[in-house]
Amino acid sequence: MLKAVRLSRVYGGSRGAATTKAVDAMDLMVAEGEFLGIMGPSGSGKTTLLQLLGTIDRPTSGEVFLEGQPLSSLHGAELAFFRRRRLGFIFQEFNLLDALTLRENIIIPLVLERCPVPEIAQRVKAIAARLGIGDVLDKYPYEVSGGQKQRAAAARALIHQPALVLADEPTGALDSRSARSLMEALAGLNEEERATILMVTHDPVSASYCRRVLFIRDGRIYTELRRGQSPEGFYQQILDVLAAMGGEAGGRVVRA
Ligand code: ADP
Ligand code: MG
Known about the structure:
By secondary structure, the protein is of the alpha/beta class. The protein is built from ten helices and ten strands. The strands form two sheets. The protein has a six-stranded mixed β-sheet with strand order 6-7-8-3-9-10, with helices on both faces. Residues 249-256 have low confidence and may be disordered.
């Protein structure tokens, strides 16, 4: 479904300045319906990778193919349309519009697509029920909890059934209970609606909901883990890899 080939993003280097290889010749394959976690120390290139996959940034070299289409072939209005239609984004800071209710925020992607009003109403009802925010849809972001805001942001990212959902630290601003309920919702959407989700996270508990976790370091893939039967066993395996990787990600886990 998604394929990255020798993907690189180099920052800096103009007028003799030092360069940073934020993403360094990375190869990546994501199957349809996967729930993939991405972990690694701060500065290892996770956000840059997500931005390249999400057409927010362009690679220095290499190519990303989404459903066979090279992303470098998309420009201007076509690129904006593709991003809006085929992708969904969830950010750490929610990025909801304060002047709109949760319902109005959630339906933005459908309004942009000129989806018929009855269909919008039906889809918002279904996704809100899945995410457990049906009773707060007519509240404004400042009237609800962080966890509810993030579930509304997830609803907005998923309501137009994008090919790919990209989430950058979606549980980073949440307490552990809200984080768990968001992860349960995302895991459910992944399993039941086959939504393909790529999620960057620092949190090994959140990562343990994924079916596969990629560990990156210095812009390269360090290793990957696949979840077997037991989520608890997977959590422990994730901790072990983070400890073996050392650095800040490992240290953070030991302190947690
Ligand atoms: P992560 O999300 O894993 O913390 P990032 O992708 O944000 O890592 O950053 C990877 C590397 O690229 C870091 O060394 C960071 O300082 C550098 N970097 C990220 N964005 C920029 C930018 N816009 N300009 C220059 N360097 C950047
Ligand atoms: Mg980041």
